[in-house]
Amino acid sequence: MYASARDWARLGLLFLHDGVWRGRRLLPEGWVAYSRTPTLQSPNGEFGAHLWLRVPPYYQDPAGPAALPDDAFHAIGHEGQFVSVIPSRRLVVARLGLTRHAHAWRHDRFLAQVIAAVDPRPE
Question: Pick from 69, 113, 85: which is nearest to 8 by CA?
């Protein structure tokens, strides 16, 4: 699917607002909570229904993953495209990238820096 960064950010906002867009429910009630619930096939709680609940290890800093809020979740696409939603910070971050090698992008560090820039309160 081709979409602009603004379109992907809108998808993140839809999830941030529990499936409601401009006062109209577009997703069934409970869908976002279901999507954020770890699946049985995810023994380490890494993913829910089509959403990553943690930044995958291959997108983390090898020196150690950055601390992110526990409620962060992510839609991860081809070659480093991300939509990250952090409800506790009311934050949506869309990243369109052409990162052919996953290890070349450290999404956890990037998000930690964005959080610090827009909401510098301590974790």
Answer: 85
**Angle CA 111–115–117, to nearest 5:** 115
Which CATH number is 5-118's, of 1.20.140.10, 3.30.70.1450, 3.40.710.10, 3.40.50.300? 3.40.710.10
Domain spans in the chain, listed from the N-terminal domain onward: 5-118
Record the pTM. Answer: 0.88
Q: Is 42 helix (H, G, I), strand (E, B) or coil?
A: coil
| Sign of the alpha-carbon torsion through 29, 70, 121, 58 | negative
Write out pLDDT tens, residues 73-116. Answer: 999 888 778 999 999 999 999 998 877 676 777 888 889 999 99
Helix (H) or strand (E) holding 46: none
pLDDT attached to residue 123: 55
HSE at residue 69, side-chain half, CA atoms within 13 A, is: 23
